[in-house]
Design a protein that fits this description.
The chain is an alpha/beta fold. Helices cover 32% and strands 20% of the residues. It is globular and about 60 Å long. The mean pLDDT is 95.
Length: 256
């Protein structure tokens, strides 16, 4: 019996400030059911408040506590291990890490990297490289290859994480999708077999969820490229044109 639906945000419900056609209405239908709904996102350019405000302004009827982000998972990791990191994050995301950055006069014992275009220049990456050489741990909020903007596909943080790993000869700890623990944390006490993940990233959303025991629905919006469903060893449980059709399948299933 289906009990929960995990939903990706960027590329699945919206692309920047453009709503995927029909997504608001489809989400409202989903909220009329008794299903637990969580929005799971690797978005690292925006704090939870910034992201919540954007979604509300776009017309999505969500609550802030329904958003489970890789930023929140990274913050928990930093606090639980009492790390003092060098933060390679966008200004909009730094709100969630207030008071957690390494003081200027101290040496960072971790480097935390998210999607931060303004931070990805030689001098800043070299600072991170030197911290890693001095023993700091590399923490990647996620390793996305690319994402969809309104002007087309754009590089994600993955290539910068891999570059630092290569140069500093270290291995990053990854906290967001597609890590199994991330999906399980979002579900809480719900059995993964009773959940569905809807997303546009065949690797981080769909394959990651399926490896965590969750069914994966791939939408052909956002970063989706023709043939993506053939790039993973186990095919998605469903490939649908958009979030609207994914919700229709779920509603048919629970109303049998």
């Amino acid at each position: 019996m289906l009990r929960a639906v995990l939903i990706d945000l960027s590329g699945t419900l919206h692309i920047e400030n453009q709503v995927i056609p029909g997504a608001v209405e489809a989400l409202k239908k989903l909220f009329e059911t008794n299903l637990t709904i969580k929005f799971v996102t690797n978005t690292t350019k925006e704090s939870q408040n910034f992201l919540y405000t954007r979604l509300k302004n776009l017309g999505f009827p969500i609550k802030k506590d329904q958003i489970f982000s890789s930023l929140a998972a990274a913050k928990y990791l930093i606090m639980s291990r009492q790390l003092k990191p060098l933060l390679l994050l966008s200004p909009e995301a730094l709100e969630d890490f207030e008071g957690l950055a390494c003081p200027v006069e101290a040496n960072p014992n971790a480097v935390v990297i998210g999607l931060a275009p303004n931070e990805f220049h030689y001098e800043r990456l070299n600072d991170a490289f030197r911290c890693l050489l001095n023993g700091a741990e590399l923490i990647a909020i996620h390793c996305g290859k690319y994402y969809k903007r309104k002007d087309g596909l754009a590089l994600g943080p993955g290539c910068f994480v891999k570059g630092l790993e290569y140069s500093a000869q270290c291995t990053a700890t990854i906290v967001g999708k597609p890590q199994k623990m991330f999906f399980h944390s979002a579900l809480g006490d719900i059995n993964p077999a009773q959940a569905v993940m809807i997303g546009d990233d065949v690797t981080d959303d769909v394959e990651g969820a399926m490896k965590a025991g969750i069914r994966g629905f791939l939408v052909q919006t956002g970063k989706y490229q023709p043939g993506d469903e053939n790039k993973i060893s186990t095919p998605p449980d469903a490939v649908v044109p958009s979030f609207v059709e994914a919700v229709e399948r779920i509603l048919k299933e629970i109303n049998k």
